Amino acid sequence: GRAEQQQGHFDRARSIFQQATDKHCANNVHIWQAWAVLESKCGNVSRARELFEAALSLDNHNAYVCHAWGLLEQRHGNFDLARKLYLTAFSKRPQAQVCVALGEMEYQTGSIENARQVLELGCEVCRSGVADILVAWAAIEEQVAASAA
Length: 149
Description:
Blueprint: H1 2-6, H2 10-24, H3 29-41, H4 45-58, H5 63-75, H6 79-92, H7 96-108, H8 112-125, H9 130-148
Helix pairs in contact: 2-3, 3-4, 3-5, 4-5, 5-6, 6-7, 7-8, 7-9, 8-9
C-alpha cells in the first residue's frame, strides 16, 4: 500500500489496504494507521478518522496512531482533541516529534506558557531529538519577541 501511495496510485493503495484489513492483517494497527494517513493526505477526513478509530480499537494507546491522528485534528482546528491525542502519545512514548507538535500547537492557540512547559518537559524526558525540541522552542521564543516588539 505504501509503495502505491508514494507513486500516487491512491486507489490502488486503498485497494491493497482494504484487502490487507479484510483478509490478512485485520489486527495490524500499523496497516490501519497507514491507511488513515493516506485518507488524510487525500482529504478524506471523515474516513481517516474512522480508520484511526479502528487502529486505536486494536491498541488504544498506540503512540504513533495518537500522534498521526493528532496532526490531522490540529490541521482541522480541533485543538482539544489534538491535545488529548498528543498527550496520550507523549505519555506512552515520549518522543520529540510529539513534543514539538504539541508545543507548536499550544503556541498557535495562544497558550505560550503551556508551549514552554511542554517543550521544557520534552527536553527533560525525551531520550533523543532534544535538539529538535530546542530549535522549535527557540523559534517560538523568536516569534514571541517579534510580536512584542
